[in-house]
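Lecture 7 notes: from sequence to structure.
We start with the chain below.
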Amino acid sequence: TGVDSTRKLDMLRSIGADHVIDYTQEDFTKSGQRYDLILDVVVYRSIFNYKRSLSPKGIFVFVGGSTAAIFQALLLGPLISMTGSKKMGVVMWKPNKKEDLVFLKELFEAGKVVPVIDRRYPLSEVPEAFRYLEEGHAQGKVVITM
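Predicted structure tokens for the same chain:
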């Protein structure tokens, strides 16, 4: 299941999402559906919304988001993890392990994980790249080439 705005749903399908949800129309955390893993790269909901959407042994991980949401997850995530079977945490909190990076490298090399790159900018055009990101139209990563 992939969750994004209306204009990005086709992109989600193209990278393998069997089911897509338009967050501008539906709050997936209120659907009653339970997930084994929720990976959110722009967390903006309360950590408790994510918690109710997890299966009994589900895992919630986020990469970034609003300052308030990050602070709440950093503060409450470990407490929730210690008091139940659900795990909640931050990707950047733990250092990368060599075996995890090797595993990811193998997934990339096998084509099982394919990054979605929206645009590339040379280093000399970093201000333009930031303007593009600020507009909120990127449908993937914006890469700075050196």
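Points to note: The mean pLDDT is 86. Residues 2-93 form a domain with the Rossmann fold fold (CATH 3.40.50.720).
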